[in-house]
Amino acid sequence: MSLTLFNPFEDLIFDEHFCFLSGVLTTERISVFPQWLMDQFKFGDEKIEMMDKTKSYKYSDLELPCSPEVKKAFTNLDLKIQAAYEKGFEGMESLDQELLFQWTGRMVYGLLYYEMLYERDRLLRQGEEFALSAHLRERFGRFHLMLQSIIEPVSFVGQKPWSIVVFPLKYSADIFSYRDDAINLMFSFGVNGFGFIACLQDNGLIGEKEKELLDKMAGHVLHPIQFEELYARFHYSDYILQYKPEYKIENQEDGITIEALPIEILENRPIFGFWDEDIFAQLLSNYWSVYGIEREDILKFQKPPLSFLENPYSKDFIIPESIDLPF
Question: How far is CA 34 from the centre of its chain?
Fold first, then answer.
């Protein structure tokens, strides 16, 4: 007999009376963003917008219904991450990536949960039915299954479903940089000492695509503008990924194993589509706006695109200390 676990995307169950992860009836709640993180960087009272920009919440008001078991599991995980955080880059790098997946996944799923609630309520007010495409139901359902590994016998074997990279990063003290794309299950996090980027369901394809650059970065402490460019590269790569990640999921009585399957590449269809420098420059300019860098500065006539990661001619990694910009 196989193990049966809760999947809210089967019947689109997003209700404050049911634990977001296990589905059991509950009155407990847990914050989407770890309390220690909000306290450390004092962003609990700041606002975060939903995707359509018409609704916003305070970070501290974002909470998920959860069972005592789930709350305890994430509380213990928070303690492990906080202890690693206090050791800086070395502490974070030493963590098992599955822990980073679960910790990051709680925040990304929490934002996804609120997007589902908002869209459901918006449609109800208009007298319309809330629905998701079969593709999104499957994708989000699998992500939810993977996140249940924190409380259930769900394990990962072989190729992991994610790309997670951790690297040294220099920021001014008390600055916290965070970006997410809940629909595409992406997340970036940067503070003074380290940063990490997580693509939570790409089957490692984007990390492999950027391996050459990541190898060049080894041993260097990134400048923040390099961190933003790296995340932009991961984000755009996810956009042009032409194959849906597939999994081998084996469900036995004693647990579930998940293995990311290799891509079966079709003729004339590479893993990643065409890299459009114009589109990428527009995306990158959004991340670089704090430096006053616009799309027109990135793309100039008869010049290669501006980069702070690689010399456009030699492809050598740009030494962070040579970048004369604030951090």
Answer: 15
